[in-house]
Fold this protein.
Amino acid sequence: MLVRVIQALIAAILVTTVGTASYFGGLEAGRRSVSLGASPVASAPAAESPTSLDENAEFKVFWEAWHLVDKEFYNQQSIDHKKMVYGAIKGMLESLDDPYTSFATPSHAQITEEDMRGSFDGIGVVVEMKDKKLTVVAPQEDTPGEKAGIKPGDVIVAVDGKKTADLTLLEAVAMIRGPRGTKVRLTIVREGEPNPLEIEVTRAEIKTVNVKAKDMGDSIAYVKLNGFAAPSARELSQAVKGVVDKKGKGIVLDLRNNPGGLLQSAVDIASIFMRDGVVLYEDQRDGKSIPFNVKKGAIAPDIPLVVLINKGSASASEIVAGALQDSERAKLIGEQSFGKDTVQNVHELSDKSSVRITIAHWATPKRQDIHQKGLKPDIEVKYTEDDFKAGRDPQLDKAVEYLKGVNQGAN
């Protein structure tokens, strides 16, 4: 009877029911960290049934170990069959030795789905794991986190009394998020404060700010893109069109610390600035190389353009930056990018957990070798800890200086 119950449980979890477009990993989190999404795919075929797998010698070993745990493990109350199945799936994917092929529990899968949608219930604070410390990158404007006084550089050492040091980024984010109107208590260590701070924040609906723009003077616009979610291309198009309508003479597109997102969003965003050509090639497992071409209808194909990149620019950010660099449409300024050239499909399983599977590699139009190397900027400019503390941004300063020089040359 137990075997049948376990078989039913595994069947319910292992059967893939929905194929979804995927994304770069970052919240993957925290890094934000974020995996490169592929083009929309059809629903995956159903997994082989546990009954037929039972007859396989390799799977027989799994059942032997499972039964031994059920029969002999001394603390029976700690046995959780669903956790055991999740652990088995995680172990199976980890055996492939690919950091971007992974499993997400239902709660963790929901986080990444919410990020792609662009809205969620939480406190509106961007965080990352830095040296195993949950560190605040920045609070979004006009959110509960900002209003509560959370600042960039704050280290969240506990959430509702639970220490964050041993958590993954997704685990920590899952604890901070929650239904709007509820409260979460954060224990924060802040530089210059002798004792930890206790800050209670009431959660609210948070709408992700994908695009921020400002005028740098001399008809030069600065546009920051934070991610490649579903609304990103539309929002960036609106911002860029505003610059073009005002007869702007240059755009700085900031992709620093942008971990990526949807592949289609990357193609759409590159197409804002390019008339024609290839955005990327997708090299598939069967040896085929599929070109993703520029979409027609470029909004700003001629305005002078600089793209800012750094080590946090990954996946979709590298697709856009690489396409613009290879086509000589833009200059890259900053530091070497992250170097993620793989493509993933994300599949939702029947219990709302998900598996992310690497299906291909992608390449820039000129096939630069960026694997674990990243894109090399045309003009390298470092951004130091001292710059951050002093509120300086030498990379942005260099971009503005470059565009002013281009405009003077044009005159």
